């Protein structure tokens, strides 16, 4: 970060003397020199050494550091946009679902000052794996039968707005509800929302939920103020065509040091603020995505075999390798020399895409 050094100012005064002809006894007027102003040096800011968000590397309140994050399923159909509150997620995961569409999983370490979040959609097994990798509490509205089976099998702490007591038609103190404004313009399945405040209230009433990480839990992500990788390629623009339905695009803003996110050929906007979502880090991992053959077009996404992908930060990108233990291991990323990826302090967007996805950089 650039620091402004104190600028020492000097003042030069012009002294003038006036005299008149034939006025011998008139004393010449004198001017007292104005003393130079005292300029105090601006002290350099003290480096921050307080608690850091383990998902972003940014400062946060001590009370949140060891909390289990919240992972929330987000609808990403074009007709359901804009999403709400996704810009406040520390990590956004985007993964294909049936029919070429994608859904997102927003992971929030802190719920402080988080507003409305939504719209909330149903679970799939691979989103459960991502949530488990963060030891997160999972919030969803419905799910595939396979997802419900895995919730029971894996012991996922999942709060469900369809088969659970966590949703109402109106906001009345429950965890989720159907937003009345969205109901005026959207199909019913695109209207389920929550808020950071509602989540915290629900957690306070759920004695069965473990809200803190167990002793010794440690995240594998590391951060630096500047996470720009060395020896990479230019990544001012990144285009990721997930399917015929969905293409993601990231455009680097050198002045702000972040990527502006686009999808469906338009800015990816947070409906709460009306502003485009920006992230510091972009991760793209490629893996096998296969249809299950069922009548609903569900797919499987392999998150346990590892593979290759890319990491971009600061307008540069490098190839990476990735891995994850099944089902609850953390995703970990390495450069081609086997060194762990260091992220830039800030939010991260992870796209999980098929092996044949034609990713391009410019």
Brief rundown of the structure:
By secondary structure, this protein is mainly beta.
Beta strand %: 25-35%
**How many structural domains can be distinguished in the coordinates?**
1
Figure out the total of helices.
Answer: 5
Poorly predicted runs are 1-29
Shape: globular
* Percentage of residues in helical conformation: under 10%
Biggest beta sheet attributes? 11 strands, mixed
Distance between the termini: 26 Å
CATH C-level label: Alpha Beta
**Which class do the helix and strand fractions yield?**
mainly beta
The whole-angstrom Rg is 27 Å
CATH third-level topology: YerB-like fold
Number-wise, the strands total 27
Can you offer a commentary on this structure?
This protein is mostly beta strands. It has a single domain, classed as 3-Layer(bba) Sandwich (YerB-like fold). It contains 5 helices and 27 strands. It has helices at 62-65, 125-133, 145-154, 180-183, 196-204; strands spanning 70-74, 91-96, 102-108, 116-118, 137-140, 158-160, 167-168, 176-178, 192-195, 222-224, 233-234, 237-241, 247-253, 258-263, 266-267, 269-270, 275-276, 278-279, 281-287, 289-291, 299-301, 307-313, 316-323, 332-335, 342-344, 348-354, 360-361. The strands form 6 sheets. Strands 1, 2, 3, 5, 6, 11, 19, 22, 23, 24 and 26 form an 11-stranded mixed β-sheet that branches. Strands 12, 13, 14, 15, 18 and 27 form a 6-stranded antiparallel β-sheet that branches. A hairpin with a 4-residue loop joins strand 16 and strand 17 (275-276). The longest helix has 10 residues, at 145-154. It is globular. The chain starts with 61 loop residues before the first helix and ends with a strand. Residues 1-29 have low confidence and may be disordered. Residues 1-16 form the signal peptide. Residues 55-204, 238-350 form the DUF3048 domain. Residues 20-50 are annotated as: Disordered.
């Amino acid at each position: 970060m650039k620091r402004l050094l104190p600028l020492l100012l000097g003042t030069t005064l012009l002294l003038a003397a006036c005299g008149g002809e034939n006025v011998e006894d008139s004393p010449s007027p004198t001017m007292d020199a104005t003393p130079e102003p005292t300029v105090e040096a601006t002290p350099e800011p003290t480096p921050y050494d307080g608690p850091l968000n383990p998902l972003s590397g940014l400062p946060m309140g001590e009370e949140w550091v060891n909390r289990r994050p919240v992972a929330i399923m987000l609808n990403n159909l074009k007709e359901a946009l804009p999403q709400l509150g996704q810009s406040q997620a520390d990590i956004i995961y985007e993964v294909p679902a049936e029919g070429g569409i994608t859904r997102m999983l927003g992971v929030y370490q802190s719920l402080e000052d988080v507003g409305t979040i939504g719209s909330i959609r149903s679970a799939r097994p691979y989103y459960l794996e991502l949530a488990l990798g963060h030891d997160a509490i999972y919030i969803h509205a419905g799910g595939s039968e396979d997802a419900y089976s895995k919730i029971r099998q894996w012991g996922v702490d999942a709060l469900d707005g369809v088969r659970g007591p966590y949703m109402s038609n109106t906001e009345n103190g429950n965890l989720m509800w159907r937003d009345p404004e969205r109901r005026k313009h959207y199909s019913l399945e695109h209207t389920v929302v929550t808020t950071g405040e509602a989540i915290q209230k629900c957690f306070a009433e759920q004695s069965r939920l473990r809200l803190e990480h167990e002793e010794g839990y440690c995240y594998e992500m590391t951060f630096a103020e500047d996470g720009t990788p060395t020896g990479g390629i230019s990544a001012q623009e990144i285009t990721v065509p997930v399917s015929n339905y969905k293409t993601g695009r990231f455009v680097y803003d050198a002045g702000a040091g972040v990527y502006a996110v686009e999808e469906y050929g338009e800015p990816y906007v947070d409906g709460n603020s009306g502003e485009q979502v920006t992230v510091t880090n972009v991760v793209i991992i490629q893996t096998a995505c296969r249809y299950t053959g069922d009548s609903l077009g569900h797919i499987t996404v392999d998150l346990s075999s590892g593979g290759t992908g890319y990491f971009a930060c600061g307008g540069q990108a490098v190839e990476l390798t990735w891995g994850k233990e099944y089902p609850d291991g953390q995703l970990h990323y390495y450069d081609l020399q086997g060194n762990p990826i260091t992220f830039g302090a800030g939010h991260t967007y992870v796209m999980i895409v098929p092996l044949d996805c034609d990713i391009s950089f410019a």
